[in-house]
Amino acid sequence: MTKKIMALLLFVSTITMAQEKVLLRLKYEKGDSYTMNMKMAQVMGMGVMTTDMNIQMKYDITNVSSDTYESTSKFTKMVMDMKQGAMQVSYDSTKKDEELDETGKMMKSQMAPMLEATILMKGDKLGKVLETKVEPNVPGAGEFTDQSSNVIYPEKAVAVGDSWTMTKSNKGMDLNFTYKVKTISAKNVVLDVSGKVSGIAEGDITGSMNIDRKSGVLTESKINMAMKVQGQDLSTNLTINQTKI
């Protein structure tokens, strides 16, 4: 009898956990600070062109209202290694001039304004970016902040197995994402990510995301895109980690 009762309790507990719903919202508090570490690896063709990039940023929550938040962010580190045929470019913002080769020094002069820039962003609690401003204005700087906000939450609470979709347009490509709730725990909500790429590139999207349940902040994202661009294979692997400090 005791074994039957235990089995019944376990069954009821499993059903209850499966039906648990969570309302995904960003719950920043004024004064919160985070670090973001973004790594991207791209390979075109059979290694004809490769790009490895590591971007680190720090962002501070400067204001929070009932529906929106405001933040400022700055780049703290940039590392890039690019290869195309016989040409190779390496750059590390933490290195001194004497540690860089000529191409690295050239990259440093181009990246210096971005490292000095401050990005001001306003978003809502669903994760939508409402405004982005770069001071001083540096083209392309705001795109990295948008990468860190690459999920928009649904209006309704979700349970394990629920899904929703989102479309983003970027440089002639339409990225159609589907997010599906894989697990819900007391600490985290884990999503499976799938989707399609269309436009100037065609391909598939796969990946996963880990969300802090209490704050709604994306703590880890792994997105893989396998595409064809003008007949060439292009793979992109993007990993983002965010940590409260």
For the biggest sheet, the summary is: 12 strands, antiparallel
Which shape, going by the Cα principal axes?
globular
Unreliable stretches: none
Q: Under the CATH scheme, which class?
A: Mainly Beta
Strand content: over 45%
Supply the CATH architecture: Roll
Explained architecture:
- Helices cover 17% and strands 56% of the residues.
- It contains 3 helices and 14 strands.
- It has 245 residues and is of the alpha+beta class.
- It has a single domain (23-244), classed as Lipovitellin-phosvitin complex, beta-sheet shell regions (Roll), CATH 2.30.230.10.
- Strand 6 and strand 7 form a beta hairpin.
- The longest helix has 18 residues, at 2-19.
- Strands 2, 3, 4, 5, 6, 7, 9, 10, 11, 12, 13 and 14 form a 12-stranded antiparallel beta sheet that branches.
- The N and C termini lie far apart (51 Å).
